[in-house]
Specification:
Order of helices and strands: HEEEEEHEHEHEEEHEHEEEE
Bound molecules: manganese (II) ion
Radius of gyration: 19 Å
Number of helices: 6
Distance between the termini: 23 Å
Shape: globular
Structural class: alpha/beta
Largest sheet: 9 strands, mixed
Length: about 260
Amino acid sequence: MSGDVLQVLAAGLASGSVRVVDLSQTLSPETVVIGLPEPFAPSAPFSIETLSRYDDKGPAWYWNNIALGEHTGTHFDAPIHWITGQGLPDNATDTIPAQKLMAPACVLNFTAECVVDPGFLLTVPHVEAWEAAHGRIPAGAWVLLRSGWSKRTGADFLNFGETGPQSPGPDVSCVRFLVEERDVAGFGTETVGTDAGAAHSFDPPFPCHGMMHGAGKFGLASLANLDQLPPTGAILITPPLKIAGGSGSPCRVLALIAG
Ligand code: MN
């Protein structure tokens, strides 16, 4: 490909005809972390400790130590995150080819449905209805479920009820369709993880982890500002930290949009 496309991009960025949308939540000690039942190991919350701030410990500089689980806040799931993806090549944060960390996005807006039913399940007919309006999901594209969930805070974000967490996500058939029939890059969501809150009870359980990662696909969780994206046409930039053997990492997810 000629360099012209990059010159057009550079001109678009300079003029504002190409806009950069930040799809990331701010990381802080208040960032809600997924909760697992006993006996599973809990993920640590984000913590930050000042080393110096223009003071005795560093008169001219400010910096912090941070600690956090890999799957905290807006983050990327690598195939090695799930047992089904453990044997795949290039399956960890440091070995996924960089070329795969930029890809187009299809944004499926089911915000109204998720207001009525916080446990909304995305099905194949939902995807087919979206495709009838916006065109076929191309191979290698992200599928992002826009739910409005990023507006929730605190306990409402995990939304635990009597039967466990209630939050939207794809059902088993939908995940299989996206993997086998559409060959997507991965699935992204505004919720704490890519699977629906009720996915522990699915057959198989947690399909958006088991089937996506087993097929070498990725995940994006706790996305924000999906309401600023068009249904098609955005390009996502999703590089996880290059952690050796990492299962995922917090990620500053950016989207390029035209106009
Ligand atoms: Mn994750």
